[in-house]
Structure formats: structure tokens, C-alpha cells
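Incident log entry.

Two folding requests arrived from the same account within the same minute. Monitoring flagged them as a possible duplicate submission, but the sequences differ. Recording both here for audit purposes.

Request one:
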Amino acid sequence: MKRRIKLACLVLSVLITLTACSTGEKTALDPKNPVSITLWHYYVGDNKIALEKAVDAFNTSVGSEKGVVVNAVAKGSVMELEKAITDAANGVINAEAMPDVFSCYPDKALEIDALGKLCDLNDYFTEAEKGLYVEEFLNSGRFDGERLLILPIVKSTELLYVNKTAWNEFAAESGLDASKLGTWEGVYAAAQDYYKWTDAKTPATVGDGKSLMGVDSVANYIIIGNKQLGVEVIDGKNQQVVLNREVMKKIFDTYYGGMSLGYFNAVGKFRSDDIKAGDLVAYVGSSSGAAYFPTWIEKDNTQQPIDFLALSYPVFTGGSPDVIQQGAGMSVINSTPAKQEGAAVFLKWFTAEAQNIDFAMTTGYLPVQAGAYENEAFKTSLETLSAGTAADQNIAKVYEIALDQIMERETYASLPFKGSYEVRTTLEKSLTAMGEAGRQNAMVLKEQGMSEAEILVALDLNARFEEWLTVIRSQLDESGIAYVEK
């Protein structure tokens, strides 16, 4: 999406404002007899508080005027929410009744829609209203070409996070520039140099270099890597998996080689934990996780402050600069006309610029309407973050890069199909397991005195790649998911 689209969205916003109060429209809502809307979500902490504040504001304003009362219910984690939704939709004994609105990812929407439970939101949003949203964000909730089953609430992309303090120390001696981190090949080479540089710090102990790089979502790494190189590994249009050997080999070699030789690593639950522990200098992760990037690290049993650097997501050489766009939206169930309309009224209000900017900036996500990025409230929020605490300043820096990616690069979310979530899991777990096995095998070979080149030969990346594909095929066959090889 290009920046000029935002002007068109702003014009549409004005037109909607001018026509929103037209009379004569039919409505199932009655302010004298308010309809109660139950909303299930997975937000916790500050996100949960922000949502509850928004719901309260709606109930005492637009909700009161139109006759809609929303009750937000936290259902725990995403997995707990999805189980509750699935049980309710299938009428499992002792399951709760279905909510009227719920946080939803595309894979779950497909499952619930197959049971005839989801409402097509096209019935409640005009073309002008839909035109206000960032097109790619809205399209991620479309099914069967046009049916709008999920409305985007907030979104995120992925960036490269760097401990600037550690990087600058390395760069000063190595002569490397951060621009080298713009490609995956550059990241790999920099990680290799960093490992050798740190290894040389302790000449008495050979092979104890440190890792530079980590990957928070291995599934996203595989999916967007394929897309950058011209392949949709999760092919929702044809409801199959596409295993392009040349592309998958490049993705495999980078991750497996990096993990095996210690250039890459994954120690804690999240890569931000590894930054804090001093186990990594950089990682790729969600823009919504900016608040979790540490402002200090543990070194020599002391807390040492660190500076922060945010960079664009790396691109495979020769590929297009595609980046992930992700984040759950909200779906509405088929119920009564009043409940469906009431749910739509809330969602329109919640995703309108004023409310959505406040919620997104509180939670570290991106607003979903294009005009929000030209809104003075958004700019003011960014200025406030830039002048705030070290953590706030980190978030502001991330927004600068994330916005550039959303506006200037192609954002991508794979189209789901039945079983596509299992595909993500298969890709993630299989490559993660291969990387960890390679690391353990390489450690044994290091102890035998082998050089890095000799270790790579001994590991036999070609054989390990074939092993990875065999695992993927086997699990896809077991799940009954179609795939093609090219």
C-alpha cells in the first residue's frame, strides 16, 4: 500500500462523517430496550485494561445512545479462548453459550464458519466504511473472495531488534555497518563474524564464540522467506502446501547452518529474554513486542543499560521486500438482527481512528484505519513516547520502522484453509527441532577439534535438508493436507 491511498481514505472519512446522520435507515436497535453483547478476548495485563476502558467508554456514549451494552470477558490465552469457542460452537456438554463477538484468527474463523456460526460483516459495513481500512489488513479477514468474517482490530509486523550498545562495540572493531543487516545473507555473515570475534576474546578456549541472532517466530521466517522469493508455501487459493526445493533449501541453510554453528540461538521462551541475558545481540520479532525489549542486560552480575536499534525486516537477496502482517481481529456470530447490528456498531466505533489510536498505542500495535497515521492524535502519541522513558522511546523507534514497512513495502498474510494452522505448526516445530539437533551435533564435532568448515561437511546440509522435507511430508500426509513439490 502506498502513502497516496491515505489521502483517499481521509476523504472517505469526511464523506462518512457528513452522511452518518442520515435518517430513514432501518435498525433493529432500540435505546429503550438495550441489547447485551458478550465479547470474548485473550488480552491480559495492559491490553486487557485498555480494552475494558474502551468498552466502558462505548457503553456510556454510543452504546447508550443506540441501545447496545458490551460485556468484555477475558478467556485467558489464545489457546484457551479458541478451545472455549470451539466447545461452544460444537455444543460440547457444559460448554458456555457462544459469545456475540470474539477475538479470532483466520484459521479458527474457517472452522467456526464451517459450522454456519459466523456473520458476514459486509451486511453491516458500506463500501465507503470498508475503504477506510488499510486494504491488506481488511483482506486478511475476507473469505471466499468477498465474505468479511473478521474485522481487523489492531495489527503488527515483524522487525529486526538490535542491542545497539553491543552492536556498536562489535562494529567499531570489525568495521561492519548496520546496513549489512538488511539481507538474511548479510545477517548470517555478520553473525558468523560476531561468533569469530567473540571466540577470539578467549584464545585459551577455542569454539566458545557467542551468538548474534535469534528468530522469535520460525513459522513466520519460513512463510515470509518463501513469499520474498516468490512462493506461497501456504497456498490458500489452492488449499495446499507448496514445497519449492530451491527456496526451502535457502531458508533451511540459513537457519540450520546458523543454529548449528552457534551464529544463531534460542535459549529462553522469547528472544527478548535472550537479549536481556546477554545470549543474543539481535532478533526478528513482532513490532507489538517493542515494550518487552530490555533497557538493560545482565552482565558480570550487574545491570548494564543498553541502547536500542530497530531495523527493517531482512530480505533474502534477490527477493522482494515482503513483510508479515499479523494480529487477531474480531468475528461476530449469527444470532439475532439486534445482536449482530449491536456488535457491528461496537466494532465500527472501536476501530474508528480516535478509539483505535488510543488502544493501539497503549498496546504497542498498529491502528487499522489508514487515516489514523495522519491523525494528529497519533502524531502526538508518538511525540509523547519519544519524550518518555527508555522503554517508551524504544516503542517510538519501532513505530517509525513499522509504519515505513506497512506503507512502503508489501505486507503479507497467507490465506488460510482447513488445516493451515497445522501447517504453520509443522513448519515451525520441524525446523526448530532440526536446528537444535544440528547445534548439539556440532558441539560434539567442535570438541573433536573440527573447524567450522569441517563441521558443515560432517553435518551434510544437503542430507539434513532432505530429512527436513521428509518430516514435513510425513506430517502433512498424516494430517491429510495436500502438498506439491517444485
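Request two (distinct sequence, not a duplicate):
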Amino acid sequence: MSTSEFVRPAGFLGTLNGKYHNRALAAFMIIVVAHWAEHIVQAVQIYGFGWPTSRARGVLGVPFPWLISQEWLHYGYALVMLVFLWVLRHGFAGRSRQWWNLALGLQFWHHIEHLLLFIQAQSGWRLAGAKVPTSVIQLLVPRVELHLFYNTIVTIPMVVAVILHRRASAAERKLTGCSCGAPKQPALAA
């Protein structure tokens, strides 16, 4: 990425993607990986433990079953994730930004699928005459497997982007103003 392609934002976005990028990125990634883990646990509950889909609700969904059934919550998470992928992308440059942008594009589609589910839950209309809210790809792939797949194909490029970002060259760090990958300064001997 050349310097002409990279524009460092000013104000709050600039600070978030510079001085505070490491903390913001770490917090966001913890939430994203925890959410992905919920989908993995749900799949283990179904395929490993033989639980019926209605009982397989991940870790948080077992004590709080309403978390699974609220389309607004799923759509809200998809939207917030899309926003943070967009906002935090300004701290990435080079190959790490390419991987982050891939995750952003995939999440955009995932968000569209959740928007479709949300609209159906609110309106009573059902795609293709289904009995429950159904997304486009869900016409071909069951919901549990589909959302595990979506979260996997969004999370993996994010992880790759973060690894590359933390190993960023001095030139990339200079472009972004981010210190996530900056070499640690040795402590002075007393």
C-alpha cells in the first residue's frame, strides 16, 4: 500500500487507530473470538454430545435461552461487528489491511443475512415460505452450521490480519501511527 492510498484519520478515529489501537483491537478480538467459540460450543453440543438443536445454545445460551431466540440481538451484534471492522481498519496497512478488508467484506454479507432474518422476525414475512425466519444461504445450509461457517470465515482473516499487523514493518507502523507491532524498548539497567 503506497502512502497515497493510505489516509490516517484525524480526531477520535485517529487516536483510536493510533495510540489506542492496541487496546481497542485486543478488546474487539476477545469479543469476536468469544462469539466464535459460542458457535463452536453449539456445534459440539449437537455433534459431540448429541443434543437436539433446540437445546444446543452454546455456553451463554444454556443459562440465558432468550439470547438465542432474539433476532434483534443477532442483528445488533452483526452490525456492531461491521462498524468496528470498518473503524479499526484505519490502523492496518499493507498485507494486514488486505486480510482485515477481506473480513470486512465477508462480515458485510453476514450482516445482510442477519438483516434479512431480523426483517422477517419483525414483519412475519418468511423467505421462500419457510416456517421460521430464514436467510438466503440458509435455504441450502442449516442455520447452526451456516452461522458457524460465517463466523469462521470472518474470524480467521481477522486473526491473520492481527498477526501480520503485530509484525508490521517500520514503514507500515509509520503510515498508521499504530504501535501494536512496535519493538519493545529494552529496560535500562540501574
